[in-house]
From TrEMBL:
Pfam families xref list: Flavin_Reduct (PF01613)
Residue stretches making up the Flavin reductase like domain: 18-173
Residues forming coiled coils: none
Record protein name field: Flavin reductase like domain protein
PANTHER family, per the entry: BLR2425 PROTEIN (PTHR43812), FLAVIN REDUCTASE LIKE DOMAIN-CONTAINING PROTEIN (PTHR43812:SF2)
An example Gene Ontology molecular-function term: oxidoreductase activity, acting on the CH-NH group of donors, NAD or NADP as acceptor
Organismal lineage: Bacteria, Pseudomonadati, Pseudomonadota, Alphaproteobacteria, Rhodobacterales
InterPro entries for this protein: Flavin_Rdtase-like_dom, Split_barrel_FMN-bd
Length: 201
């Protein structure tokens, strides 16, 4: 099968997200200029550079009470900071609860019963029990082609790692089993790993 996205795929559901998988989930926490906290998951998320460490996520829809975007991007525009909280399998249900299109006045930490902690390098809340948190200062927001498509880039200014996830100096993902997004309503979880040496190593 071949299709041009501009012509449509003719399938019951869009296959694009099922092709680009699995995708790590950036559980983004933000705090507005009014002090209101927000927490929402984004599956267009990844690390993009080592030195200095940088990450990005993309928001691809809008809410009527936020104009051209959603709560996360709107609050980052106000404060220029955000935190990426890593999602473990055990947090799948509370993460999903925060994915709703809740009113801008809703604090998803409180809605889903998630414990907050204060970030160290930025004025923002983080998920206290997450395996890791990346505190970030905004570097740029890029408007992508298409309505409400914004890519947010940030430099990591602080890193939290849960002590039980460190094994012999290695951050061991099998200690918490990262949750990843696939296509449609599907998710997957990392339960095994293997290593490969690069040529010449």
């Amino acid at each position: 099968m071949f299709y041009r996205p501009e012509d449509g795929h003719g399938l019951p559901h869009n296959p694009f997200n099922a092709i680009v998988t699995p995708r790590p989930i950036g559980w983004i926490s933000t705090r507005g200029s009014d002090g209101h906290d927000n927490l929402a998951p984004y599956s267009f998320f990844n690390a993009v550079a080592y030195f200095p460490p940088q990450v990005m996520f993309s928001s691809t829809s809008a809410k009527p009470d936020r104009g051209d975007t959603k709560d996360s991007v709107s609050q980052i525009r106000e404060t220029s900071v955000f935190c990426v909280n890593i999602v473990e399998y055990a947090m799948k249900d509370v993460m999903n609860q925060t994915s709703g299109a809740w009113d801008r006045g809703v604090d998803e930490f409180e809605l889903a019963g998630i414990e907050k902690a204060q970030c160290d390098t930025i004025n923002c809340a983080r998920v206290a029990g997450a395996p890791a948190n990346l505190e970030c200062k905004l570097t740029q927001i890029v408007q992508l082609p298409g309505e409400a498509n914004f890519a947010v880039f940030g430099e990591v200014t602080g890193v939290h790692m849960r002590d039980d996830c460190l094994v012999d100096g290695i951050f061991d993902v099998l200690r918490f089993n990262p949750l990843s997004r696939m296509g449609y309503r599907d998710y997957t979880v990392v339960r095994e790993k293997f290593s490969l040496n690069r040529p010449g190593e």
